[in-house]
Specification:
Helix 1 packs across helix 4 and helix 2 packs across helix 4 (125-137). This protein has helices spanning 7-14, 18-25, 52-68, 125-137, 153-173; strands spanning 32-40, 71-76, 87-92, 103-111, 114-122, 140-149, 183-190, 195-199, 202-217. The protein is an alpha+beta fold and 222 residues long. Residues 1-23 form the signal peptide.
């Protein structure tokens, strides 16, 4: 019987390998990810008492974590005939820690009530191994776009992004599974920083992902 390794397992096996050793010996060789993050400064939108700088940092960590480690996901397509509710759940595979010395806020600026921050993140060896393995093994890609209410503040922005991840998985599966599966499990990662803008009172997020499908369970037929 053949043994099948998931991408998550292959990443774990690589962490003590040559990629990590080389990066540890030569920090200058590590990949640097540069992000520009923005947040609206209107306190009517952000009523949680958070500062613009805090929101910029939270979103930078969230985005970087999604680009380096990604998420495990489980997806149950909705089916009206079977009275099945559509469900989509994400479980982070890793996070960039608070206070990571490799994460640097290069500059901030304010324009038209929006604060922008440019971040540089020099990947530590463990993170670089994860990212390299995703690039090596993930051959499936998809994109999705979704919206969430602007008045939900920072959480609305993250909700739009996660709904876009959901949509990207749906778009990948639709032509490959014309008969809806009961449940699909796998992993996904952001291939590039998401594009997020405001449209008519909503956050609109567009994502491009790489993904691995580990299991697709069909309904039993009798």
């Amino acid at each position: 019987m053949a043994t099948i390794f998931s991408l998550t397992a292959l990443v774990a096996l690589s962490l003590a390998g040559p990629l990590q050793d080389a990066a540890a010996r030569n920090p200058a060789s590590r990949e640097v990810i540069t992000l520009e993050i923005w947040t609206i400064e209107d306190t009517l939108i952000h009523q949680d008492g958070s500062s613009p700088e805090e929101r910029l940092l939270r979103e930078a960590r969230y985005t970087l974590s999604g680009m380096i480690y990604g998420w495990d996901f489980s997806y149950t397509p909705g089916d009206r005939l079977r009275q099945v509710e559509e469900l989509f759940h994400l479980e982070p595979l890793g996070t960039v820690p608070w206070g990571a010395p490799e994460l640097r806020l290069r500059e901030t600026r304010v324009r038209d009530g929006t604060r922008y921050g440019q971040f540089d993140y020099r990947l530590p060896p463990e993170a670089q191994a994860h990212r390299s393995q995703w690039e090596s093994f993930a051959s499936l890609h998809s994109s999705g776009t979704a919206r969430a209410d602007l008045l939900e503040g920072y959480q609305g922005k993250i909700a739009a992004l996660e709904k876009a991840l959901h949509q990207a998985v749906r778009e990948h599966l639709r032509p490959r599974h014309p008969n809806k599966p009961h449940q699909v499990r796998g992993s996904l990662v952001l291939s590039r920083p998401p594009r997020i803008r405001t449209v008519s009172g909503y956050y609109e997020a567009t994502v491009t992902i790489a993904l691995e499908i580990r299991d697709a369970t069909d309904y039993l037929l009798f």
